[in-house]
Design goal:
By secondary structure, the chain is an alpha/beta fold. Helix content is 25%, strand content 28%. It has six helices and 14 strands.
Length: 259
């Protein structure tokens, strides 16, 4: 099976190139996962935007530390099986930390987890995944993890922690695509960060003027979404539908005009 993984979609520019890409190429993939936690103006996601992403062909939307920035998502995520938030939030949090979707006679599990280093306080993702992965393996061996975190060391550690147990571990959150994609010894595809879908001539998808000013004076700043140099970042991953092992992993880094 061929999987498309899309890195953090930032605001309207990110949605614009995502929709253009899916319109032209979604038929090339068997399963599509989109990180949408920054898709509403750079912070959070709305029900309307989630519906737009699903209607364009996404099978699952993953989130992260901005999961709750738009309050309307609280009810939506409880009802929408195809959206997942980090599994290591408190059990009382709305929604679910993983989902299992059946497509083309195969069950695919998608897990979302949030890292701890340089991130808001949260329960240990390693312990959470050590507990849930064996349970998911009873139902399917095709398992994908969106690990939303800042530190490369923590993401690498998670890759090795799940090596041979899941099909794919990819990082999100830093909005900078890394060049370390590979298949680990146990057949798990890995990349430290899949990158960002949006304006790349700003700072992490936001306009550089406000970001620079905040770094210089430390004062609160109202960020706006960058609309320059729009690119889509992601992965194409081939996973053996019988073994659950990854067979190939390839980065996507395409400008709007090239879609």
């Amino acid at each position: 099976m061929k999987f498309l993984i899309i890195g953090d979609v930032v605001g309207e520019p990110g949605r614009k190139i995502l929709f253009k890409y899916l319109e032209k190429r979604k038929q090339n993939y068997d399963f599509i996962v989109v990180n949408g936690e920054n898709s509403a103006g750079g912070f959070g996601i709305t029900a309307k935007i989630a519906d737009q992403i699903f209607s364009r062909g996404a099978d699952v939307i993953t989130l992260g530390n901005h999961s709750w920035d738009k309050k309307e998502i609280y009810t939506y995520i409880n009802d929408e099986k195809r959206m997942v938030r980090p599994i290591n939030y408190v059990k009382e949090a709305p929604g679910r930390g993983y989902t299992i979707i059946e497509k083309k006679d195969r069950k695919i599990a998608v897990i979302n987890a949030q890292a701890k280093i340089f991130m808001p306080p949260i329960a240990c993702p390693f312990l959470a995944l050590d507990e849930i992965v064996p349970e998911i393996l009873k139902e399917t061996n095709i398992i994908i993890l969106d690990f939303h975190g800042e530190a490369t060391s923590e993401k690498l550690a998670m890759g090795w922690n799940l090596n041979g147990k899941v099909s794919l571990v990819y990082g999100t959150h830093t909005h900078v695509q890394t060049a370390d994609e590979r298949i680990l010894s146990g057949g798990t595809a890995y990349i430290t960060d899949v990158g960002m879908t949006g304006g790349h001539d700003g700072v992490l998808g936001m306009n550089r003027k406000e970001s620079l000013q905040k770094f210089k004076d430390g004062m609160p700043s109202r960020y706006s979404v960058c609309e320059e140099n729009i690119k889509i970042n992601g992965l194409e991953v081939e996973i053996n539908e019988n073994t659950g092992k990854a067979e190939s992993i390839k980065r996507i880094n395409i400008h709007y005009d090239e879609v």
